[in-house]
Specification:
The chain is α/β, with parallel strands linked by helices and about 325 residues long. It has two domains: about 200 residues, 3-Layer(aba) Sandwich (Rossmann fold), CATH 3.40.50; about 120 residues, UDP-galactose 4-epimerase, domain 1. Helix content is about 40%, strand content about 20%. It binds nicotinamide-adenine-dinucleotide. Nicotinamide-adenine-dinucleotide binds next to helix 1, strand 5 and strand 7.
């Protein structure tokens, strides 16, 4: 299949591109390099530098690459905290870019669409593990924008026959030998913890130790980015038999303290840490039930152990101490 990957120069998108190429698909990447890096792109990839907010640029990406059959849409504003300060960026930005893409995709005959959605759809969930029947109560304008895009896709399916996969990731983590997580600014816990071991930060601050969890710190479900990418390919290949919505995680939660302890073990560095106040809106526990994708598509994560996941991230950060810069 010929697949347009938006945000294909970013963290998760670049790994999806690698997996798509490995599975024999043809890839066109559309990215404005607001985050991510052109250095992630292999020579086999056709790259269009453009902004999804610009409908002409999206049109151009399709027109100059005829025969695109599917879209994987990773490009997005992605920060929960930023969305609580600048809701317009998320509510307008993520919706406009997503709708531009759906509209042009349909016009050019692409009939399959995979959306990067999020666990933030569930806000403070009523139960864990969280399956797809959990009520949607987004925890931020970021989550709200993803819900709107899921709903828009349901309308595009009804009206235009666009088959879609809505994949709600929990915490994407880990790296391949070539591709890893580098954001400016960095807000994700694993790169932040590892930056202490690299000597780039003095200590790591844990947000709150008074949650109703065994050690008082928040519990999250980490999913290796390669397992995530493979879930995209399985979903893409299954869309002919219907649209799909899946929660994606390992089904096992680790507390922030357990994560820091694992990073100490993996790196051999003491990683000094301190306790800070809670971050507003952080749920105590977020763990996915991925039973649906396991049973419907036979998806099975290969990297479920936290030490392996953190170890892969550490290998990448050690070999890329400045990310993709030099
Ligand atoms: N990282 C996680 O744990 C996580 C969890 C849940 C959902 N997600 C979702 O997964 C997707 C990918 O996340 P990521 O961590 O790889 O992000 P990322 O920032 O590394 O990658 C996003 C890419 O999209 C590009 N981009 C952003 N806006 C664009 C625009 N208007 N036009 C063209 N390109 C644009 C950026 O330059 C970047 O290369 C996002 O949609 C995010 O909301 C991520």
């Amino acid at each position: 299949m010929k697949v347009l990957v938006t945000g294909g120069a970013g963290y998760i998108g670049s790994v999806a591109v690698e997996e798509l190429l490995g599975a024999g698909h043809e890839v066109v990447v559309l990215d404005n390099l607001y985050q991510g890096s052109a250095k992630t792109l292999l020579p086999d990839v056709s790259f269009v530098q453009g902004d999804l907010a610009d409908a002409t640029a999206v049109e151009q990406a399709f027109a100059s690459n005829p025969g695109i059959e599917a879209v994987m849409h990773f490009a997005s504003y992605t920060l929960v905290g930023e969305s609580m300060k600048k809701p317009e960026l998320y509510l307008r930005g993520n919706l406009v870019t997503g709708i531009n893409l759906m509209e042009v995709a349909v016009r050019h005959g692409a009939r399959r669409f995979i959306l990067s959605s999020t666990a933030n759809l569930f806000g403070i969930p009523g139960k864990n593990p969280i399956d797809e029947s959990e009520p949607i109560e987004p925890g931020s304008p970021y989550g709200e924008s993803k819900q709107w895009l899921e709903r828009a896709l349901a309308w595009y399916e009804r009206i235009h026959g666009l088959r879609y996969g809505a994949l709600r990731y929990f915490n994407a983590a880990g790296a391949t030998a070539r591709l890893g997580e580098h954001h400016e600014p960095e807000t994700h816990i694993i790169p932040l913890v590892l930056s202490v071991a690299l000597g780039k930060r003095e200590k790591f601050t844990i947000y709150g130790d008074d949650y109703p969890t065994p050690d008082g710190t928040c519990i999250r479900d980490y999913i290796h980015v390669v397992d995530l990418a493979r879930a995209h390919i399985l979903t893409l290949e299954a869309l002919d038999s219907g649209s799909r919505t899946y929660n994606l995680g390992n089904g096992r939660g680790y507390s922030n303290l357990e994560l820091v302890e694992t990073a100490r073990k993996v790196t051999g560095h003491p990683i000094p840490s301190e306790m800070g106040p809670r971050r507003p809106g952080d749920p105590a526990v977020l763990v996915a039930s991925s039973d649906r994708i396991r049973s419907e598509l036979g998806w099975k994560p290969q990297f479920s152990d936290l030490e392996t996941i953190v170890g892969s991230a550490w290998d990448w950060h050690r070999s890329h101490p400045n990310g993709y810069e030099g």
